[in-house]
Amino acid sequence: MENYIDLKAGYRSQWTGLQGAPVTSYFTLSAPFGSDFVQGDAASMSAGNQANPYSRLYAQNYEAAEPHHGIGFMVVSDQAGPVNTTNIDATYAYHLGISSEFNLSLGVAAGFNHISLNTSQISLENPFDPAIANGNNSQWKPDLSIGVWGYSSNYYIGISAQQLLSQNLYFSTSNSANQTKTVPQYFITGGYKVFLSDDITLMPSALVKLINPQPVAFDVNMKLVFQDRFWIGTSYRNQDSVAGLLGLNISSLINISYSYDYTTSALSTVSNGTHEIVIGLMLNNKDRVISPRHGF
């Protein structure tokens, strides 16, 4: 959505204090191509490059971006106890202005998912347990996700589906009864900007997750942005946690954000909460924007 190369690296330590709790590391890169978009200003808007992207002026003068492509790459690694999962995907999206102020983007991510089991971390009553004995403890599976994203200057809405290629997972070659199966995961999200003043913007958003047979899960978020330099926020995840959020756009090159989740589920008796930090770089940022034009 932006006309620079957007690079992010993140680290999330969940339920700290609990042995074997999930730890997630990720790296993403996205870049546009299409000369009318890349060589234009950062948002194809007549207000000029100096307009604060969270300001009323930006919203009033916003024009939908020229049609263009986006490409990217991402690696996500999850370590939970003895199980490690790594997703490696290439991404592609096409952005099209369907009105003077609204863009629609269609995207796909395709790659591979690697699942491994570290048997040295497992204590068994029977060291030759057929569930993992002589097992396939390192597996590669194809991965496919799709999504639709609509956005303007002051709102967005998105629908996506992950793990569309359902896969059988098993750690034993001789006991198929112990195999598990991945299922598709569906997400619906949306957000809106409320202008409290020329320099302060309130941004509520929500995310709904549908993963059968789990109960429906949702996040409700609220973010307060001061010009395009600093933001604070809070988030509620049903039957799981509440979180505090903050971010700083240091320069036209680098930004950083942090969140702390306080666990509200039964895990609160053994968890010291969850920490997550994300560092972003805006490379080839010719317009030297301080914050993403479409940041929520």
Describe this structure in words.
This protein has 296 residues and is mainly β. The protein has one domain (5-283): monomeric porin ompg (Porin). 3% of the residues lie in helices and 53% in strands. The protein has 2 helices and 17 strands. The chain has helices spanning 35-38, 56-61; strands spanning 5-13, 23-33, 68-80, 83-97, 103-117, 138-151, 155-162, 168-169, 180-181, 185-192, 194-195, 200-210, 217-226, 230-237, 241-249, 254-263, 274-283. A 14-stranded antiparallel barrel has the order 1-2-3-4-5-6-7-10-12-13-14-15-16-17. Strands 8-9 form a two-stranded antiparallel ribbon. A hairpin with a 2-residue loop joins β3 (68-80) and β4 (83-97). The longest helix is centred in the N-terminal third of the chain and has 6 residues, at 56-61. The chain is globular, with a radius of gyration of 21 Å. The two termini are 12 Å apart. Mean pLDDT is 87; it is low at 41-49.
Mind sketching the topology for me?
Blueprint: E1 5-13, E2 23-33, H1 35-38, H2 56-61, E3 68-80, E4 83-97, E5 103-117, E6 138-151, E7 155-162, E8 168-169, E9 180-181, E10 185-192, E11 194-195, E12 200-210, E13 217-226, E14 230-237, E15 241-249, E16 254-263, E17 274-283
